[in-house]
Amino acid sequence: MAALSFPCVLWACRTSILFSIIRVANPSEQLRRVAYLVGCSFLIMWAALLGQKIQICLAHACLVAAPVGLSQIITDVISDLSLVMMPIYLPRETKTDSGSWCLQCSLPRC
């Protein structure tokens, strides 16, 4: 059960961070669509990893194989890079007032 619950919690946290970035950055409509597409890709990666783990658990009694580990590393790198790059890129292109500028500056440090 822990093999399935950890990825669910991890991807929920990543999605929460992504939506916090969107809320604080207040991006233009085009950048908001890109951020939502990143969120959709998070959902797809989570579902693919969960499906892969369920299939392995049903067939091999939850012995995690090398393909599962490799797919976890690949999705972790992609999602972490997108979460790191988004706060760096979004403030350049956003419409902000002076009050939220301080919040945007603190996002990459979180």
Provide key terms for this protein:
single chain; 4 helices; 110 residues; mainly alpha
3D architecture notes:
This protein has 4 helices and no strands. 13% of the residues are buried. By secondary structure, the chain is mainly alpha-helical. The longest helix is centred in the middle third of the chain and has 32 residues, at 29-60. It has helices at 2-25, 29-60, 66-93, 98-106. It is 85% helix and 0% strand. The two termini are 30 Å apart. It is elongated and about 50 Å long.
Give a brief rundown of this model:
By secondary structure, the protein is mainly alpha-helical.
Radius of gyration, CA atoms, in whole angstroms? 17 Å
> How many helices does DSSP assign?
4
How much helical structure, as a percent, in the residues?
A: over 70%
Oligomer: single chain
Could you give the distance between the termini? Answer: 30 Å
What number is the mean pLDDT?
79
- Give the biggest sheet: none
- Class from secondary-structure proportions: mainly alpha
Strand content: under 5%
Question: What is the chain-wise order of helices and strands?
Answer: HHHH
Low-confidence stretches: none
How many E-type strands? 0
Q: How would you sum up the global shape?
A: elongated
